[in-house]
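Action item from last week, closing it out:
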Amino acid sequence: IVDADMAIDAADFAIVDDDGLSIQRIFFFNGKMFYSTGQTLRRSTMDFATHEVIGALNGNQPPVFHVVNGKCLIATGSRLQQYDTTLAEIADSPSLKWVNDRKGRTIGYNGDYLYYSRIGNAASWTHDTNDTSSGYKYDIGYQDGGEIVAVDNLSDVLVVYKSNGRAFAVVGEPPSVTIREIAHGVDCLAAVSVRGKSYYAGKQGMHSIIPTQQYDNMRPEPEGLAVNGLIIQQAPDAIIMRHIPSRQQIWIGCGNTVYLY
């Protein structure tokens, strides 16, 4: 149903493998299926008939997978791990809840901070004041009482959503980065970017932010009007959003229900 090297969530749908273990996340990498059960990463056939343990995940957060330079990076709220033929922890990595890549750097977030790796090296995150290609970190919304809950990686800007309802635009690349608040009162539990728009969903349904030439003037727009009332009725504490390019759809998972947009 999903493209290769895409991740989907399974926890809300009570999927279990042949050993009766509840599956959290499923990921397709190099033509094979991987999935997490608690803090264990496993590889399986598509029908779950045979599977093997790959190794232990080092964090308590549901894993986020992303492929960079032929290696699968895994963020679980602790240091990044990477998998190609074996699972290993990246010693120089900060603790990250999310991982992606942008303009040659691996990026991630945790708490208030947005992190950038060294250019071309997902294993190097230390900042060197004499080397602009080294790692960087930026405090998004200094001491504002919120934590980053989602980041949308658009072509010209990063849109950063925080738990206190504030949204920020991160414009430019290290070391020349500008951070601006672009919206407040934003109800975001998850977000995806599609064709230059940042779609986000929360207890008040799905909306989008459209970047304009004035990055401090993005405007939220209602989306998914046919299902927003149902999402509001559910008032979910967690939402899962996935862009499925092959189907030109956004999937929104709320509890046991998946809405298609």
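Closing note: The helical segments are 225-234.
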